[in-house]
Design brief:
mainly alpha, 61% helix, 0% strand, elongated
Length: 160
């Protein structure tokens, strides 16, 4: 008669790993599109700054650098590069905080129409941030498929 307690093997059980996504998740193109819209919003705000004061040259580098960071994050997420979602999330968070601060300032000054326009500009960074932090996008960017060669590391060399 077998004992009620099952015998266990002294070997460790294999670690279950999450399966790599088969293809690009459906949220990745939306994250990339909203990231590019965020870059456009940042460049538009830079243009508005330049229209207000054309001599603010060094200050205009900030929107350009920020737009390039958002575009780089969009490209990294599109290709599935490891950490691309973090770059996109941080690059979307900075303009979001700036736009919400300006909207709060407009609201405090009593300019309700300008406040709502500023909040309308915040739609693209909010969506870029939310989509970059979603689980399918994070899983897509977890395996650094954008940096390794398609045929492996020894595809170009002959075996000896």
């Amino acid at each position: 008669m077998p004992s009620p307690a099952a015998r266990r093997s002294p070997r460790a059980a294999p670690v279950a790993r999450a399966a790599e996504p088969a293809g690009r998740p459906d949220l990745v193109p939306y994250a990339a599109v909203f990231a590019l819209l965020t870059a456009g919003v940042v460049l538009y705000l830079g243009w508005l700054l330049w229209q207000g004061d054309p001599e603010a040259g060094p200050l205009l580098t900030l929107p350009v650098v920020l737009a390039l960071a958002v575009a780089a994050g969009a490209g990294m997420v599109w290709r599935g590069v490891r950490g691309g979602w973090v770059v996109l999330a941080v690059a979307s968070l900075v303009p979001l905080l700036a736009i919400v601060s300006v909207a709060f300032l407009f609201g405090a000054l009593g300019a309700a129409g300008d406040m709502w326009l500023a909040l309308l500009l915040a739609v693209a960074p909010v969506n870029g941030l939310v989509l970059a932090c979603r689980a399918p996008v994070r899983a897509w960017c977890a395996h650094s498929r954008g940096t390794r060669p398609a045929g492996g590391t020894r595809a170009g060399r002959r075996a000896r």
